[in-house]
Every structure is written in C-alpha cells, then in structure tokens.
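Lecture notes, unit on protein representations.

Consider one protein chain, 711 amino acids long.
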Amino acid sequence: MTSTTHSRPPGPGGPPPDKLAFTAPSGRRRVTPVRVGREFRRDRLLPQLLRKAVLDDEGQQCVQVRLSAKDAANPAARALLDTEAGTAVQLGQVLGDTEYAALFPRLIGYELDTAEPFLLYDPPRGTAVSRIHVMGAADQEIFTRDLMLALCLLEGQGLVPRGVSPATVLWDGARVQLWGLESVTRIGRPRRPWGRAPFCPPEQRGGEGTADPRDAVWSAAQVLYRLATGRPGPADRPPADLGEHRKLDRTLRDAFAPRAADRPMPAQVLDLVAPGAARRVRAAVPPDETRPHHEAFEEALRLKRQAPAARPREQTGSGVLCPYCLETIQLDLTKLFVTDSRMQYKPLDLKGINNPVRRTDVMRGAVQKCTADPEFPTHYIPVPYLTYGRPLTVAMVGQSSTGKSHLLTQMIAAITDGGLEPYGLKWQSVNPEQHARFVRDRVQPLRGGKVLDHTAALGMDDFARFVESLLITDPRGQVRPVAFFDLGGEDLVRTDAALRFLLGVDALVFVVDPALALPLPQLDHARERWGVEVNRDGDLAFGTVLDRLPKDGGYVDVPAAMVLGKADLLRFQPPVDRWLTRPPATSLDPALTRDESRDLYGLLRRHAGQAWLRPFDAIRRCTLHIASATGGQEDHGRYPAGAGPRRVLEPLLALLAMHGLIQVPGGADALAVGEAPALEAVPWGGEEADGEFVRPRGPEEPEGSEGGELQ
C-alpha cells in the first residue's frame, strides 16, 4: 500500500493522513497514518521521486523515496530501488549503532512488492555539496576523511558506489553523509555507464572492464577538487593546477589517474589523512560468522568424495522405462492414439499415411498406450518419448505452497526463451499440443502477473504424471527426452502410488520455502500472511522421498539440486543478496557452483538447522541454488510488475551437467562434489600393503589445509 500525493505539505490544516504499511529493517511490520509533502525528482535522469513525510503514529519526520506506478512498471527502475534498499539494509545491519552509521542515510522501512514501491529514510543530515561553492582547507581534510571512510566501509562489503558526486554527498559542517545508494554495484561486476563527467571515471563512462573500488576514488577526488577550486576538473586526466592546492595534491594526485589500476585504494587515501583509520574501520565491522558452516560444507564434500563409487544403473532390455508403471516399454505402432477436438483419445491408424514428412509429424503428436503392467491404471506415453533413447525424468519435491509450480513454469519458460543455447543445447517439444497448452495455461498467465493455482492433489489410486516434456539435443547431436514432474507435497506424504515413480526418477529438485525453514524476523510478515510457522524438523516431503530411494555406497545416487525458492523474500539477506543479483551466466563454472552451494549450505545450517539439509547430506551429487520464480511477492493476487524470474535455470543446468548433457571442467562429479586436493587424493603416512598405500585410521588431514538534491 502506498500513500497518495497531496498538494499541501504535512501539518495542521492539511488533508487527512493516509495509511502507510511497510517493513522495518528489523523485519517488524508497521502500519501508520502518514502525511506527505510536495514531490520532486532527485535527478532528472533517475526515476525516483522524493517527498517529505510525517509518520503520525510517532510524529516521526522522514523522507520517502518512491516510484510512480508508471515507472514501477519498468523492471530497471524497480531494480534501482531494490539496489538502494538492499545497500541501506546491509549497511544498517553491519554498522548498527557505531559512529560510522551516520556516514550513510538511515533506512526506516520499505515496501517493494506493490504497485508504487517506496523507501523511508531519516531526514538527510546536511546540505548537498553542489550548493557549496568552495570549502576551507580544514574542512576539506575532515571531508576527505569521512568520504574515504564511507568508501572503505562499502569496499569491505564488496560494494562500489558509482554515483559519488556533489549532488549525492552531503555536508553539515562537521561530517559527511553519502546518498545515491541506487548507484552501488558489486566489485567485479561488469562496468555500466553511470553518472556525469567529470565525476564519472573514464572506464565507467565507457562501460569498460569490471567495477573496482578505485572507481569511486576518482569520483571522490573530483568532488574534492570542485570544493577546493569552485569548478569541475578535467574528465579524463589530472587537473593541470593540482600542484597549487597542496593538501589535495599530497593526498589525491594519483586518484586522478585515468586508469583505475593506477589509483590508490580508499584505505590508502584514508591513511594519508587519518593514519590508522582504515585499521579501526576494519575492526568495527562484525566478524565473519559463516566460517564454521563453510568448513562443515567442505568436510561433507570430502566424505562424499571418499565414499565408494555407485554402480551404474542397469538398462532393462532395449526399450525405455515407463515413468509411470516403471516397466520397460517399446514403440508399438498398433497401440498409438491421438486426441480429438474433445480431448478424447482415439486410435491412430498409420496405414494410409505414406508421406514420410506427414507421418513423422503425426507421430510426434501421438501417444502410445502402455500395457506393460496390466494392473496399473491406464496411461499413455508420447511417442517421441519412446524413440530417442533413455529419457531423463526430473521431479520437483517439496511441501505444498513452496513455489514448486512457479519455479518449474519459469524453468520451462527460460528454456523456450533460448536459455539453453549458450550451453550448446537445443530443445523442441515432445508433444506440440501438450506444450502449447502448458504455455497457454501456465507460462503466459504467470508472465502476465497472475498467481498460479496450487498443484491439484492426486486421488488415492492415481499416479504421478509429468506436466511437461521436452527433447533436449546436446552439442554432440544426441537427443534425450526430459520429463518434468510436479507433485503436491501432500501427495508425496500420503499417496504410495505417487511415490512409486521415484524408483525410476533420474533427477530431483528439492524446493526449500524460506518461510518454513528460516526463523528470520524479516519473514514473519510472510508467515503471518500465509498462516505457516517455522518447521525445525525440515520438510516432511523431503524425508518421505529420501526414505523411499535406495542408497548405494552410503548415499542416494540420483543427482539432485536443492533450491531456496522465493529468495526475493530474502533479497537483502547475505548471501542471498550476492547471488540473486548476479547477471545470467553463459557457461557452467564448477567453482562458482560450489561457492553458491557452500553459501546456501551455510545459511541453512546456521539458521534452519541440519534437518533442512537432509537432501544434501543423503545424496552424493547435490548442488544448492538460490532462485526466485517471480522476483517479488504478490499484491492482491497479482505480481505488480509481472513475474520477473531470477536464476531459475541454474538448478536444471546443474542437473543436465551431472547427466553429461553439458560438459564442465573436471567432469560431472566435480560440479557437485569437487575435485580432491592433492593431500586428500594421495594417501600419506600410511602403511604399504600389496603395493598399495592403506590410509591410517583416525584423523586423515593435516591441520590448516586448506543530479537533484535532497534538501
């Protein structure tokens, strides 16, 4: 819910207040009357609108930064507001009540999943330096210290502000406050043009290379030159008169270097004006609490690597495994059917179809009745499923309302949009009519912002059916049918027939609902809306499935991916914030996949507990992923800006790689369990027996391996 713009400023005699609902950085939900003032644009090149406001439940003065409904329909504008909110939340969590918190605007609350998203800040402290003509030498020194402190703190969080300029830096005569947080990007991300010369560094202006903390040093130096001289500096080189300004020349001469590599880091400049300040800043930041969880992840991978290799699955006969009855079936031209206009099956007689092109096309849309198990309920298999070798079945696993259906729908949509092409894979539908129905009934409504219905429950005697199937062609020209199953969580728990197909399944996607798994306060509002509670015992559907699958060598050997779905609920929570905003990859990097798996493992182990990691612990090859099928939460039954998926294809790409359809460095196993380090792969200190080393019992590894203004 957003407030309505009023023509008069807040105060007595103004219009009655509107209600404003938002979430505080702590996660607490707040609803309050609000009075708002006149609206203006901070920067004519940016979509954000600003206005003063008073929260009448406490009489709290603040500034609202918001998007109009028109601007909010643009995903790029929403992304800017998300970036601003995420940076403000992160800085608030890290800096808390320290003296450094005042260097940045303090966020009061935010509401992003609505038609007119907004942020609320404490009022700005100071005046934008664009209003200051020149600054005295003593103030310049304090100003430089504070600005470099801000840049050091951002660098410590892996962030670079691209928008440091006289319009975004405020000064109150004693301290700096840095705004413009929508410009922040992550260190190492590709540079994108941002800002105006001369405050925008040359490489950023040209969109060359990757973001570097020294980009902001250039911008800060240009702001200081303007404050020292009253005029802007050159856009691509040091000012010719820099030597006439002794302090500026001493601290920032190299900061004007055209190349980032030739500029000092923020900490180097800071220590010139305030020796030892950089060390004190580092000490003020809370210590890393993820290390023991990351170490536990590495130990789990080591145990998986040392487990006996699983025996290859046996192929039964020359046919394929029916995904329903689990019996072998072969193509039989006497048992083919097609659907009529009323979607009823009728027999297909191929005798009168002699044209090979038409015959192939007709068979592609046909199904075969499977009679391999006479006692199994009647079921039909698409003909292409039987003519391209061994199919690959993928099952979505999780309790109801975890977002499995939305995630699967966006996976298929990403494939049809060409998401597999960078990996050398091509696709076509197994059954064109079935695929067209899937797109019409699921993909198009979801993309249009409609919330999909929950997966319909099965009858007690019903069986699992795949909801979509595709033919995937790998770079070698080999074709495999891939079928996707989406079961309601209650079916996995109560219906044995729904579980039977798991004995023949080839890949599993376990979807974790953060509202059920993570007792974080920012999820309390979602839990209240959905009427759910945190379950410390894990997902019941996970356990049911894992108990049904056989183990080989101590582990289940069906490749799997665990996905933290609805990750937009945690888009400001480390490490979700780092992964959810990563640009789409064009190749599979095993090291990056393991990093994401390690980070999500650490988040779940730290906050949810080991029960939620049971799939990873039980399955030998299991990767972990962060994804959002919609990019935001629904508002009155719809997604205000449509459903914007993030990282939905990565779990499937990992599964395809573990099945050999995508080649990755080190092989399919390396993607999930990593490659053994030398000390692990080569036995040491053991005794020789029959020409081979035998590992000693006990500990096996040595220690240590390892524009507008705000006034």
